[in-house]
Specification:
507 residues; five-stranded mixed sheet; 13 helices; 7 strands
């Protein structure tokens, strides 16, 4: 066997220092990395690289000059002791790097057992330098355990690569070189391998490349972890942006909803104020309307009493005036009482067949009593003899139309009532010679409490024509208005010839 120290001359003279220098640089680099990341993998790699560096020194017999004094027994045991120490650190490093506890639990348990056994045998090997002698089977057993540990690490590495971890490939290359170096050192220690150039260069170069691939594996892991962290950060940022955008959309929708709701509330408030004003105006008007007939009755009764005391006989005249005022009061009460029925009870319409000729004639006779300042003309169409309607509601409808015709027409003017016929419809028209209605008010006059001139001296509460329209709609009919300012008015209500539906839409 050639003495290894002789190979320091020639190519080995610069290869060994370069290898040791590289290992020392890696040790220093990963020590700094450990303090930066606090990752146990870097600390264990530092221990493994230190053991490899020491093994390289032993392989070149530098330890005789720099580490310890020459000893024949230690020179025989030191390479194997350092080799087993490296195996222990390699097992610990591999367990942490490959995460064998989660990946391959059974292999992890075997590796932990090997750590304990190899460490114990290594301790006994060190003691053998001073107290014990080591037999051949002890050395062979230790070498077999080291080879077994490397095999288990390789198996765990293959399983690790199967999980798509790219750093596993560099780790596999490093462990393959470790296995090659273990074989070389073991065979050299047992005398099975001569110290030739090839084996010598494997021992010199191999550890440097092992540590280089381990370092690359750690670097790739750091890069992968950084990429994962950046990806998570990017996903988190995107999720935050999406949440922020959703929050902005929600805020915009809430603002829009709040604005719409505010507008609705403003409209409701405006309508409420309008209804309140209409109600107040209605109360004032209805009070005024009630006071007028009551005043007439009171004054006529006083005149009747005074005339009776002086022997003047105007009883018929006073009774007619009182009867007219009473009828006026009855009509006002009927409007008041029918308001809720027309607004909320469309099912209460009781339609029957009415003989128009007799019914309208009787109605006009009643109107002559309290509308004695106007004359009435009835024009009957031979094709409009009957009508389907609620008699009570039809009475309210025509009385309102006739009352309006008399109120807005000059005294002694004529009010004409006509019956009409067209395809599928029967109509009743009330025509006057009054002031007329401007075209722009043709729709508004059918609204509740609406009056073209609220300050007009003509009595009224603004309910009559709204009642007329509701009654017409309750019967499934329609109303026709022909009028203009100064040309009188013609209101014609059309009812279906056949019986209408029970519950038409009156809104």
């Amino acid at each position: 066997m050639i003495d290894p120290i002789l190979h320091v001359h020639g190519l080995g003279a610069w290869m060994t220092p370069v290898s040791i220098g590289c290992l020392s640089a890696l040790v220093l680099h990963h020590v700094l990395r450990y303090f930066e990341c606090r990752d146990k993998s870097f600390l264990l790699f530092t221990g493994l690289a230190s053991a490899t560096c020491l093994a390289t020194l032993i392989a070149n017999d530098f330890t005789k000059l720099s580490v310890w004094l020459p000893s024949s027994r230690w020179e025989q045991s030191a390479p194997l002791a350092i080799l087993s120490l490296g195996a222990v650190v390699n097992l610990m490093f591999s367990r942490v790097f490959l995460k064998t506890r989660q990946l391959v639990p059974k292999i992890d348990a075997a590796m932990r057992l090997l750590v304990g056994v190899v460490a114990l045998l290594n301790f006994l090997l060190v003691l053998s330098v001073y107290f014990l002698s080591v037999s051949t089977w002890f050395v062979e057993t230790l070498l077999l355990l080291i080879l077994l540990s490397t095999a288990l690490i390789l198996y765990a590495t293959f399983q690790f690569i199967r999980t798509d971890q790219t750093e596993g490939y560099y780790f596999l290359l490093a462990q393959s070189l470790v296995l090659l170096g273990v074989f070389a050192l073991a065979f050299r220690h047992l005398g099975w391998l001569s110290v030739q150039s090839v084996s010598f260069y494997v021992i010199q170069i191999g550890p440097a490349f092992e540590m280089l691939f381990f370092s690359l594996a750690l670097s790739v892991r750091i890069q992968n972890n950084r990429n994962c962290s950046e990806a998570v950060l990017l996903d988190t940022t995107r999720a935050h942006c999406v949440a922020l955008e959703a929050s902005r959309d929600t805020e915009a929708r809430l603002a829009s909803t709040r604005l719409d709701r505010t507008r609705e509330l403003e409209i409701l408030l405006k309508n409420e104020k309008k209804h309140r004003e209409q109600y107040d105006r209605f109360g004032a008007m209805i009070s005024h309307e009630f006071r007028n007939p009551l005043g007439i009755i009171e004054s006529q009764a006083a005149l009747l009493k005074r005339e009776d005391s002086v022997g003047v006989n105007n009883i018929a005249k006073r009774i007619n005036a009182i009867s007219s005022a009473t009828h006026r009061l009855a009509l006002l009460f009927e409007k008041w009482l029918q308001h809720d029925r027309l607004s909320y009870s469309p099912d209460s319409v009781r339609v029957k067949l009415i003989d128009l000729s007799n019914w309208i004639s009787n109605l006009i006779e009643k109107c002559r009593v309290y509308q004695n300042n106007h004359s009435f003309e009835l024009v009957l169409s031979p094709e409009a003899q009957h009508i389907f309607a609620d008699e009570q509601l039809l009475d309210i409808l025509l009385l309102n139309l006739i009352d309006n015709a008399c109120k807005y027409s000059p005294v002694e003017s004529k009010v004409r009532i006509e019956t009409r016929h067209r395809s599928g419809m029967t109509g009743v028209a009330v025509i006057d010679q009054g002031c007329g209605v401007a075209t722009q008010f043709h729709q508004d006059i059918f609204l509740e409490y609406f009056r073209v001139d609220p300050e007009s001296k003509v009595r009224g509460v603004g309910l009559g024509l709204s009642f007329v329209k509701r009654i017409v709609l309750l019967h499934g009919g329609e109303i026709e208005l022909i009028s203009d300012v100064g040309q009188g008015s013609s209101f014609c209500v059309w009812f279906p010839t056949l019986q209408p539906p029970n519950t038409p839409n009156i809104h």
